[in-house]
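Instructor's aside before we start: the two examples that follow are unrelated to each other. I chose them only because their records fit on one page, so don't look for a connection. First example below.
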Amino acid sequence: MFEHPDLILPSRRSFLRQSGMGFGSLALASLLQGQATAAVNPLAPKPPEFPAKVKSIIWLFMTGAPSQVDTWDYKPELQKRDGQTLAGADPKTGFFTTSGKCLKSPFAWKQHGESGTWVSDLFPHLSKHVDKMCFLHSMHLKQNNHAPASIELMCGTNRPGLPSLGSWVTYGLGTENQDLPAFVVMHETRPRGDDQIWSAGFLPKTYQALTLDARRKETIDNLARDAKHDDAQQRAQLDLIRRLNQEHAAQRPTQTDLAARINSYELAYRMQMAAPEALDIAKETAATHQAYGLNQPECGTFGRQCLIARRLVERGVRYVQIFAGKGVGGDGSVNDVPWDCHTDVEKNHRSCGQYVDQPAAALLGDLAARGLLESTLVIWGGEFGRTSDSQGAKGRDHNPNGFTIWMAGAGVKGGFHFGATDEFGYKAVTNKVHVNDLHATLLHLLGLNHERLTYRFNGRDFRLTDVAGEVVHDILA
């Protein structure tokens, strides 16, 4: 401790405010709130309960909800009965009102791969990888609007304040790279529901995502050390902050957030070198840039995000989620909910397909070539599907009753189709998969029992799948 008689120590709050350190604690400000574990390093790697087939997850979240019957769920009967009454159609299934008349897919369909998987012509690049993909055609959930459905898909239910899948995974397994966050989210325009979709909820904020904004080229504020301080000075400041925080915590044993504060400072300090290197795609070859479409305006942003995702999982990041950015609305305007095709499914989905097709395909190919697809699971899908009957003349409304999500990589069967919607693609009817079932399956692939991964909050043990969820064993490799 300092013992000079003339030295007046500032208060802990004043010291933190005036220290002027710019080493990422501000960038990780969301980590500084709420509860925290008292463990010395809550992000240390934790062994799975049983042998895991998956080490990392990359979720390509198709914001706005793509139409299953225009992408991966081919329905010849819908094509034949265009304009005819759709038996059993509920005009209030979605958020607005639909016509009750069948709307055929405006896209051409072909079979691809040894699996003979039907794919619309929206995906000339991804169609080459169908034998890597495991399709869940019978997904369903309760919510019929974007924000609550996205929260339900990520948190198991749409109740506010619950942790997201990425936070649960980080809580259960920690991270293999102590110099990078375990959970990273990338977005362009924030999706509806924004922070709640990737929230740590009541879990310690150590398990909160680091968010990277594509509009700012995935930069991290205040990560670089202040030029006025060298490494030794910064390390001394950090040690002093830790000591002050620990003394403060010892005097206030009921406060549980200081461990998260300490851990966030330490992680930010370590990130100063590791994070810029991980995000530096300039180190990749010209061929890699071309493969991901980085120089193409229609897909360059998503391509950069997909390439960063590969670099992150390559370095041990546990969970990466990319929220697909802007699309074009039916009237030609920029749509901040890209796949939301209320007025013109053909124009909207054509633009969105161009945005994600080449980068997502490059990601699958790149992971496979590097051997990372053997330990990484890639997921593609939105928050719900679209109606098989029309909204207006050429649009589709929201449909939570049946949609498709595919997974590719570690632990799942390639070229495999599970579950089915009816002959019009309107509702899931065979081997239905609820969000809780999907989460139970993903945790199982990571070596975690969804019924045993719990956290006590307000006197109750909570889990991601609540009191539901069954592992979909049929899709496991």
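Example two begins here.
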Amino acid sequence: MLGSLHAAWRRRPSAMVVGAIVALSLAGAVAAAVLTWRGSEGPVGDITALRSGGGERWPAVPGFEVPTRLPDLDPALAPPREARLRPIARRLEVSRGDTLMEMLVRAGIPRAEAHEAIRRLTRRFDPRDLKPGQALLVELLPAADGAVRLASLALDVEFARRLRLQRTGEGFALEDVALPVVRRPRLATGVVEDSLYLAGKGRGVPDQVLMELVRLLSWDVDFQRDLQPGDRFELLWEELERADGSDRRVGDVLYGRLEVAGRTVAFYRFERQDGRVGYYGPDGRSLRKALLRTPVDGARISSRFGKRRHPILGYTRMHKGVDFAAPRGTPIYAAGDGVVTYAGRKGSFGVYARIRHNGRYVTAYAHMDRLAKGIRRGLRVRQGQVIGYVGSTGRSTGPHLHFEVLENGRQVNPLKIRQPASERLAGRELERFRRTVAAIDALRTRLAREPVIASRE
């Protein structure tokens, strides 16, 4: 380095001197400008003393210090820390074939963390019960490395019940949340002209309510033959809506009445003190019978019990059951409480199930498209539980249910068996039922008058 400077000095000494003088002059000018600018913020002392002084005896110059770090951003302009870590809300909708693990991993959640969340959730929900169209509400917490973590997960497992999984310092906490629901009573009355279904739809009655009416009265009314034009009906049910308006559905049927074949049949919904719910006539007698006469909703009888010409074999033989024609996939219900003794394929019967109800009755169901999930030999089922779906398996010409009732081991006509006497309320339960009847009747009267009052106003 010194050699280079010496060589430069020898070549052009005058240029080096001029350059040095210019550099020193510029440095002095910059220092003076800085002192003058800092001085505009307050007194800086005597500039003359600063120039003439020396070493440590120079007077202190207030405000002339080099900052050790950059100044902080104005707090009013900086985003708060919690805003930078705020979870991102996403709605995930279940598609056919989806699993909960696949949905969480697709959302960017690490597989190990998704597994832990599902493990906690399965304490109150089976992920295999996810249905297409069902929605999951997840909150994702962004991380510094660009990954995400699961902050929370919410899943509606029932109309008014939600499971919420929330991240805590120790993992995930599971909470069962009751969703607020608004209940609105609905009343409909009408006259049958072509069919009960068309009459009900014309008065705004939901399909579920009409099917419940048919199911409850199927042992007292033959809907294929008894119902005639001019017969009247009345139905009272609840409409449920979430308080936030996000969903709405049909609730319980509270009351039903049907004037048919010159008589009136009616029923009221009643919850007993032990929590059991049933439907009872005005006298407190239960509508529930040991066996359902029609284990398929909305089906028509396509072949009755007795001798007939077989549609496939071509010769006359005994038909030991009743055939109910219905669209493929229509649910089939257990005719009564009992234990499944057979569930699977059985020769010309196709997909077949048999239920033992007591020491006297057995029912059989044939030509099903498939068994319902979980239906197997040894399973105890309840009346009205779905056990399979209408199909055309085995020796069959079209979708239908072949239904048999065996009494003491012998096939009998399902439409003519004698049912045991119905249960009847008594004592305190009967008194509670009468109060329920009075409350429902008062509600019917009020709802029936409301349109008249509204029209007058």
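Confidence is low (pLDDT under 50) at residues 20-24, 29-53, 452-457.
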